[in-house]
Amino acid sequence: MNEAEIRERLDRANELLQRVLAEVSRTPSTHAIFVDAGYVYAAAGLLVTGTEDRRSFDLDAEGLIEAFIDKARTIFADSRLLRVYWYDGARRRIHTVEQQSIAELPDVKVRLGNLNANNQQKGVDSLIRTDLESLARHRAISDAALVGGDEDLVSAVEAAQGYGARVHLWGIEAGEGRNQAEPLLWEVDSQRTFDLDFCRPYVTRRPVTTYEDDTPAPPRDDVRFVGAQIAAAWLAARGRESLADLLPGHPYLPGSVDQDLLVEAERMLQYSLRGHAHLRRALRDGFWQHLQSQY
User: Which of these ranges, 139-143, 252-256, 271-275, has the smallest mean pLDDT?
Assistant: First the structure.
C-alpha cells in the first residue's frame, strides 16, 4: 500500500468519525425517575402528618409525580424524560385501585413487588436494580433520579454507574436523623432533599370521625346492607374491569379499598366500627356478596 492509498484511507476514517461525533452531539441525553413508593409514603407521611401509616393519610401521587418531573426538567435542562418508574407492593402483585390510577398516568410505569402479611414490600429493590442496570447498559438513559433510601439500593446504583449512567439520589426531609442509608448517600453522584413545603400539598390526613360512646351498635344485617350499598357505588364508579382485578384477592381487600370502605360505612352508619371486629367482618361480607353477585 503506497502513501497515497494510506492517506486516502485515513481521510475516509476521519470523515466517518466526524459523522459519528456529529450524530452523537445531536442525540439528546435522556433521564428517568425511579420512585420507591414505600419510602415516599413513609417519609412524606411522617414529615407532613406525623405517621407512616398509609391508612391515616392520602397521597396525591399524580401531583407528586408531576412535581418530580418538573424538578427533573429543571435539573436536567438539556435532557428528555424517558419515563417515571413507580415501585410499590401489592398482595399477589394485584394492582390496587390507587395503583391502577397511577399506572394510567402518561409516562409512568408501575412495577409491583409482593406485600407480605406485615404490609412489608418484598422484591421492590431487585426490580429497581433490574430496570436501572438494563436501561444504563443499553444507553437508554444518561441520568437516573432515584427516590429512595434503602441500603439495598446500593447495588442498583453501582450497576448503573458501571455502564456510565449518573445516579442522583432524591430524598424527603427527615424530622430527626436520616431516612436514607449512609452507604447509599456515599455511592450516588449527587443528592437532593425535598422539604416540608415541597411535600405538604401532596399529603392530606384522613379525617377521623368520632361518635358518642353510648350510641347503640347497629345490627349486623344493617352493616352488611351498608357494605352492599358501598359495593354498588364502587362498581358503578370503577366498572367491571376493576371488579375482575379485585376478585382473585377474595376474601381480602386491598388496604386502600378496605380503608375507604370503613370510612364510608362509618359515615353512613354514624357509628365507629374501629372496635367491633365482627361488624367490620359483616361490612366486608356485604361488600363481597354484592360484587360476587354481579360477576
Answer: 252-256
Mean pLDDT, the chain, rounded, equals 84
DSSP class per residue in 148-204: ---GGGHHHHHHHHHTT-EEEEEEE--SSS-SS-HHHHHHSSEEEEE-HHHHGGGEE
One-letter identity of residue 209: T
Ranges assigned E (strand) in 15-73? 29-36, 57-59
Site of grid cell 347503640: 216
Distance (Å, whole) CA 195 – CA 175 = 10
**Angle in degrees, CA 175, 171, 60, rounded to 5:** 90
Higher-confidence residue: 215 or 103? 103
pLDDT band at 133 (very low <50, low <70, confident <90, very high): very high
Q: Give me the percent of the chain exceeding a pLDDT of 90.
A: 45
Which residue type is seen at 55? Answer: R
Give the pTM.
Answer: 0.65
Write out the E strands in 14-78: 29-36, 57-59
Give the helix/strand (H/E) hosting 115.
strand 108-115
Contact 112, 96 (CB under 8 A): no
pLDDT confidence tier of residue 294, bands split at 50, 70 and 90: confident
CA distance 168 to 9: 43
Residues 47, 175 contacting (CB under 8 angstroms): yes
Rounded Cα distance between 39 and 151, Å, is 12
- Report how far apart, in Å, the C-alpha atoms of 110 and of each of 7, 46, 134, 199, 279 are: 55, 23, 16, 21, 35
**Any bridge partners for residue 159, and if so which?**
none
Q: CB–CB of 149/179 below 8 Å?
A: yes
Mean pLDDT lowest among 4-8, 28-32, 155-159, 223-227 = 4-8
